[in-house]
Amino acid sequence: MGRALFDNADFLSAARALAAERGPAAITVDLVAERLKAPKGSFYYRFASRDALLGELWLTTVLAYQQGFVAAIEAGDGLAAALHTPAWVRRNLDDARLLLLYSRHDFVPGDWPASLRKGVREQAQRFESCLKAFARQAFGRSGVSQTRRATFVLAEVPIAAVRQHLERREPPPPLVDELIAETYRAITSRR
Amino acid sequence: MGRALFDNADFLSAARALAAERGPAAITVDLVAERLKAPKGSFYYRFASRDALLGELWLTTVLAYQQGFVAAIEAGDGLAAALHTPAWVRRNLDDARLLLLYSRHDFVPGDWPASLRKGVREQAQRFESCLKAFARQAFGRSGVSQTRRATFVLAEVPIAAVRQHLERREPPPPLVDELIAETYRAITSRR
DNA sequence: GGATTTGTAGACTATTTAGTCTAGACTCAA
DNA sequence: TTGAGTCTAGACTAAATAGTCTACAAATCC
Lengths: 191, 191
Description:
homodimer, Tetracycline Repressor, domain 2, DNA-binding
């Protein structure tokens, strides 16, 4: 051949599809290659390791998720940021399962491939600074406990509210948004 | 020999210890046996399969966790039920990681061993009826959406609040109880 | 058109793991 | 004492899986 039959994106989307159908444990190099009818050699020509694939899959997904969240925070709208989770989940059920049902650790058990470390670090920092910005805006300070509050109301609660629907592969009902919003108001109205 | 050198409980606690140290993926039959310096044959003499071990581990742990929760509900104290999670987590850090950080599905991927199905079903029903009882008491009815509310405030939120500390193997700080309590009051005061 | 790059093709290796199987040691009851 | 039952002991099998390696085919460049 000499001209590429399979590129990075092909492997990534095959992996994504496998994860959607059978969970992330089904993302084996053999299954990904088989699904694409690609030889294993081609896979390892594109990716240094299985972890490199999983890491890239996780990172691109988390960045896609995070985008709307960051935008809402930058617009100064904390409630929109909290409600971003159910909204994004409704539009991206499969990817949301990937992202929220399995921790980053289930994905890449050992050390992250060097090529992705920087991206992951930047992603985490970006998220963290959103939380701090919100803490300052909503609670007047961005100390440890205000930031902890921000994490609770913008991340933990929305993800928790959505989890059981993710497990059942169904879009979260409107009640989920209500619960998140009520919690948001309660937590941001004091201190 | 003829007299038992290893019993069920030995294997269970070896598995528990392995999970605490290296995560549930480290619960392999070989590692459990090795830790106990028991031969594999003894393991399979006690347990029908690896899933039987994992299932029993999960079930005993969830029942231990659930006990205090049920007691609080039966005493009519919803807030105590919500705060039971951080309290139990503080007293049982390792078991809590086992229970709350990994879903039942990560534990026993396929079908549950027949011997445990009944126990799991009863456990789930018991939990469910607690939620309904609380829904009736707090929201006047136990329809779908009141029960959903109960799940949110008694289970999802407390677990979410505790999660990041579990990941870091540290006891949840008092702030976690505050967040849970504030959310509890907000969610139970309307409707 | 020959050399080089780019990539396919897939057999092969090594490791991990659940589970099986046979041998035999120890205990206890009759 | 002997026979039945209980349990240890660990070698062995089979399957799954990450990763390697060599051959070679096609495109591209000089």
